[in-house]
């Protein structure tokens, strides 16, 4: 999307001359990425944004806990516990917006806790929460927690100022997206509603979240500690910002996991809120040394699990793997179809499909939506089809039937393309020699 914007396209239409859009990302991160592309390449720009966001996020966690009365060493230990989360590490080591959204939310809270905030601080916090919303649409729990804290503390004037300023900020974000994209962004979001929550999916969301947390050890441990701290806290403690943020983050996360296709990156804000919840509660009832020992044990458990997961992994850099895939395809002026958009980007192309998941979602409600793509596959107009999963495996069959592209995709690929060289864990299919009838 940053490359599209660099070429003058702010949100593709769900389908148009450039190919398939339909993404549900909010614009701040990829707009900043596009601006940096004027200075450096897409990799350097993306990794700079991700790493800077996480550094500022960790600094924000430290400042927030210090303003909540936590000691220096305990706040520093909480920062390490935050970094132990796989969702936080993924946001640091990949090009994605989650870290930036969480960073704005944490600093928004830090501005308004510890003492009676001035009107200037309230408005600045509203601006930061609006920027978090502009980065990721589900980043509303911290703002909700701060509003509730004002109401429960009977700071009605502060609550109204904050609510008004934040509402204006959210409205400006939505209006800017609509006007700058000529409505294309909202056309994509309308299709996104197809993955929305139902009553049954909301009831099932705790199970879906627990299932997704397999492999997210730090998030699991800190969630348990956060829940235990919430249960053990006093009635007065429930009204504290740490408790309110944890409850709001848990509620928002459960709503997110009621939607189809939710991944573990959405655990990030809940993980940070759980760290803050546990540390602020434990600092009142335990010695700093005891709390630090618990956090250290959680970090060691998480990092030991990570070492076990990656002990046998071939650590070939992703950049080299992508380049090997492009070399296996060879020079071409035809588009490359891939469910990983970095493959055509590495080849110097714009991805024909930005989001294979959303293509499948839209196609379920409008089967004709995929007709242009299906026609290109039949006519073998792609230089290659590159898939993240082996379509002949049970996992791959499930992925391409129920998550990416949808039914009929794999048979159509296998009818018109033949397996090429498998590189970097991705599967390359090249056009068959004779044209399709």
Order of helices and strands: HEEHHHHHHHHHHHHHHHHEHHHEHHEE
Shape: globular
Cα Rg: 23 Å
Low-confidence stretches: none
Numbering strands along the chain, what is their spatial order in the largest sheet? 3-4-6-5
**How does the major sheet shape up?**
4 strands, mixed
Instruction: Work out the helicity level.
Output: 55-70%
| Quaternary structure type | single chain
Tell me the number of structural domains.
Answer: 2
Structure classification: mainly alpha
> In total, how many beta strands?
6
Percent of sequence in beta strands: under 5%
Write down the overall mean pLDDT: 88
- How large is the count of helical segments? 22
Euclidean distance between termini CA atoms: 36 Å
Task: Report on the architecture of this protein.
The protein is mainly α and 437 residues long. The protein folds into two domains: 2-310, no CATH class; 318-431, no CATH class. It is 64% helix and 4% strand. The chain contains 22 helices and six strands. The protein has helices at 2-6, 28-36, 42-67, 72-83, 86-93, 98-111, 119-135, 141-152, 156-180, 184-192, 199-212, 217-232, 235-238, 241-256, 268-285, 288-310, 318-329, 342-346, 356-365, 371-378, 394-402, 409-416, and strands at residues 15-16, 19-20, 336-338, 384-387, 417-419, 427-431. The strands form two sheets. The chain has a four-stranded mixed β-sheet. Strands 1-2 form a two-stranded antiparallel sheet. Strand 5 and strand 6 form a beta hairpin. Helix 3 (42-67) runs parallel beside helix 6, helix 6 runs antiparallel to helix 7 (119-135) and helix 14 (241-256) packs antiparallel against helix 15 (268-285).
């Amino acid at each position: 999307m940053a490359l599209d914007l660099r070429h003058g396209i702010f949100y593709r239409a769900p389908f148009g001359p450039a190919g398939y859009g339909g993404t549900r990302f909010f614009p701040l991160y990829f707009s900043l990425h596009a601006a940096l592309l004027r200075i450096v390449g897409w990799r350097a720009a993306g990794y700079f944004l991700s790493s800077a966001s996480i550094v500022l996020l960790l600094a924000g966690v430290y400042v927030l806990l210090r303003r909540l009365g936590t000691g220096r060493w305990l706040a520093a230990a909480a920062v390490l516990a935050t970094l132990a989360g796989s969702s936080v590490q993924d946001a640091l080591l990949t090009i994605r917006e989650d870290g930036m959204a969480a960073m704005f939310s944490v600093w928004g809270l830090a501005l308004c806790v510890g003492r009676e905030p001035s009107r200037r601080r309230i408005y600045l916090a509203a601006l930061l929460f609006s920027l978090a919303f502009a980065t990721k649409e589900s980043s509303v729990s911290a703002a909700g927690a701060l509003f509730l804290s004002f109401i429960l503390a009977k700071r009605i004037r502060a609550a109204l100022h904050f609510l008004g300023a934040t509402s204006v900020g959210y409205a400006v974000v939505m209006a800017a997206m609509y006007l700058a994209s000529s409505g294309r962004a909202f056309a994509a979001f309308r299709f996104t509603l197809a993955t929305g929550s139902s009553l049954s999916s909301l009831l099932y969301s705790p199970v879906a979240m627990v299932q997704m947390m397999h492999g997210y050890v730090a998030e699991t441990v800190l969630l348990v500690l956060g829940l235990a701290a919430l249960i053990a806290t006093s009635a007065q403690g429930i009204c504290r910002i740490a408790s309110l943020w944890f409850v709001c983050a848990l509620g928002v996360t459960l709503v997110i996991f009621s939607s189809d296709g939710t991944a573990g990156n959405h655990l990030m804000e809940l993980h940070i809120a759980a760290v803050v919840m546990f540390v602020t509660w434990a600092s009142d009832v335990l010695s700093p040394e005891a709390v630090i020992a618990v956090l250290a044990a959680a970090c060691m458990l998480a990092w030991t699990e990570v070492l076990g997961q990656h002990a046998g992994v071939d650590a070939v850099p992703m950049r080299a793997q992508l380049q090997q895939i492009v070399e296996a395809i060879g020079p071409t002026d035809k588009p490359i179809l891939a469910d990983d958009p970095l493959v055509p980007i590495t080849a110097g192309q714009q991805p024909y499909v930005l989001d294979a998941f959303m293509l499948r979602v839209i196609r379920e409600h409008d089967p004709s939506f995929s007709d242009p793509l299906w026609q290109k596959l039949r006519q073998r107009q792609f230089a290659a089809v590159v898939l993240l999963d082996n379509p002949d495996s049970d996992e791959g069959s499930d992925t391409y039937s129920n998550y990416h592209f949808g039914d009929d995709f794999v048979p159509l690929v296998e009818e018109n393309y033949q397996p090429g060289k498998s590189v970097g864990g991705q599967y390359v299919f090249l056009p068959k020699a004779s044209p399709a009838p």
